[in-house]
Each structure stands twice: as C-alpha cells, then as structure tokens.
# Entry
Amino acid sequence: MKTSKRKIDHIKICLQEEVESGYTGLEDVMLIHEAIPDLDFSEIDCSTRFLNKKLSFPFLIASMTGGHEETARINENLAIAVEETGIGMGVGSQRAALEEKSVVETFTVVRDKAPNAFIYANIGAPQIIKEPEIADKVVEMVEADAIAIHLNYLQEAIQNEGDKTAKGCFEAIREVCKSVKVPVIVKETGAGISREIAIKLKEAKVSAVDVGGKGGTSFSLVEAYRSEDEVLRDVGFDFADWGIPTAFSIVDCADILPTIATGGIRNGLDIAKSIALGAELASSALPFLAPAQRGATAVKRQILRFLTGFKTAMFLTGCRTPEELRRKPLFITGKIADWLRFRGIDLKAFSEGRR
Ligand SMILES: Cc1cc2nc3c(=O)[nH]c(=O)nc-3n(C[C@H](O)[C@H](O)[C@H](O)COP(=O)(O)O)c2cc1C
# Structure
C-alpha cells in the first residue's frame, strides 16, 4: 500500500474511532494548590526557549500529517495557528514526499505559513537505517529548526506491510547526529522511551527525546481498526495498552536529555504536571486533528485552551515561570509511585520540590 493512502486512512480512523488507550500516569500526580498564591496572574511569564528558539509557552503540536493532497489544508491550518500563537509544530513523516514528488507541497506549506515558528522535520527510524542521508533532504524540504526521527515499532509490528528493521538503528541515529545541520530529536509515537534507551541516545549525541508515551493515541489500536488481516487485528487490540505511560517515561528521561512530554496530553494541566515532573515541553497530536480540519481559528482556540489551563495551574501553584514549576512539591501516588521505587528514584525529591 502507498504511504500516502495509509496516511489518509490514519486520519479517518483517528477522527472516527476510539483510539486512545488511557492512563498516562499523570492521573497519579497532583500539583499542590496554593490557596493564596504569592503573585498576580498578570505577572506570569509562560515563555520558554527550546533548542535555541523562543516559544510563547512550553508546548508544540506533535507530528501528524502531510503526504496526501487532502492533508495540505490540515498542515496549513496548524501552521497558521502556531505562527500566530508563538508555539511550534512537527510535520508528519516525510517519507511519502521522498517517494512521490507531487505531495511535497503538503509539507512545504508549513514553512510557507509559519516563517518564524519552531518547525521540526520528521522521518522514521527504518528509513534512516536504510539511507541516513535522507535526513538532510527532509530538513531542507521544510527549512526545519530540528529533525525528529520517529520510533514506531509497535505500529510496524501490527501492520501487514510494516517495516520491522530495527538492527543498526543506534548507529544510523549516531550517523545522522554527526551529519545533519540541525538538532536531532528522537521521538516515540505512543509506547514511551525508557531510561536505558535515553542513555544510549545521549551517547549517540541526540539533542532531545520526545517520550511519546502510552496513554493517548495508540497506533496499535489505529492499525487494528485498519487491518484486513484477522490475526493482526486481534493482536492490535491485545496491545492497545502496551508501552511505558507518559509520566513514567518523563521521570525516566528528564535527567538524561531535554525531554518533550507527549502521549495523552489533553489540556494545560497535563502540560503543567509534565513540566513539574521534569519535562522541558509538552506536545499533543490528536486534540488538534479535528480543529485542523475545521480551520486555523479552531486550532487557535484549542491552543488558547491549553495555554489558559497551563497559566491557571501556574497561578494556583504560585509560579511566575515554567522554571519555578519544576521546583514545586508534587504528591505522587499509585502506579507511578511504584515505578519511581522500582527505578530507585527518591520520591522525596518530588515531595520536597528539590529536583
Ligand atoms: C493522525 C496522526 C498521525 C500521526 N502521524 C505521525 C507521523 O507521521 N510521525 C510521527 O512521528 N508521529 C505521528 N503521530 C504520533 C504523534 O506525533 C504522537 O506521538 C501520538 O499521537 C501521541 O500523542 P497524542 O496522544 O496527543 O495523540 C501521529 C498521530 C496522529 C494522531
């Protein structure tokens, strides 16, 4: 099946079916309410810097699309909205544009409409293993500020036509880090990144990880809905809940590499909890898909909801900057507390706000 056709199937399924696995671990994390915060709402400065670029608040729209003529409008609407609100976004996998010249514009529209925003290019690990040089091509195509190499082996495993080549992946990533002109982000797509993998990625000279943890969109479910193979469909549903929940992955990675929290981030409070756990930024995909089909105004409204929620959490915890949020005490319970103990991470560091 052509990559472009698969891309449009994914969008339809994500809009029509229940594709979220649930439980990110953020449910077990509580920011402690300050009934009298020591600041005025107007003093709060949510802005931050990430990989040398300023963002109005620590948030990106995660990679989704491009690669089929019908997706150009989605990318255009996302790009207009991120430019006007001062955040950033990733384009979807650019593999289709390497295979078919006719869809290049579905990606280049992003830089056209967002000349100043933080934009990251996107390509899959199996493609990089085969041909590390394509990293330069995808960066040039969208004049990107960074490149994300995505890891989606769960999805590939459930796809009949999936590319299950993983050997040589670290070497290929190391190669790209040496040769490409922009910072490299390694990005999971819903199954999380563990501490062990983050350490190896740091050794390969990666600049940041996007944990893409479990709890939001599950590509195992997306592929199960798409599958014409009965066995793979069943296995796709069996693995709906597979992966490291987003919050677990944040605490695993955040002291190793700059960390983007993705996977089930559904509002500004989720962003605030992620930052408090140690992430630099958060990003989110699915909640922006339906608004992007409607238009740039609908995307801007959704961004505003995330920003206002984030600012509200900062106000109610008495934080002027995202940096201050990182030093606030957190009440951590449930499965993520078990995970911290399992990892030998001191829970007290979180309860006393000294991380
Ligand atoms: C429709 C759709 C298409 C996606 N396509 C890509 C892609 O091409 N490349 C990629 O790295 N991630 C892709 N993702 C994964 C997201 O970037 C993100 O990691 C994942 O959806 C988890 O975030 P969420 O729970 O907020 O949706 C896609 C997600 C959606 C919903």
Q: What stands out?
A: The pocket of flavin mononucleotide is lined by residues 10-11, 14, 62-65, 92-93, 122, 148, 150, 187, 189-190, 212, 216-217, 262-265, 284-286, 289 (CB under 6 Å). The radius of gyration is 19 Å.
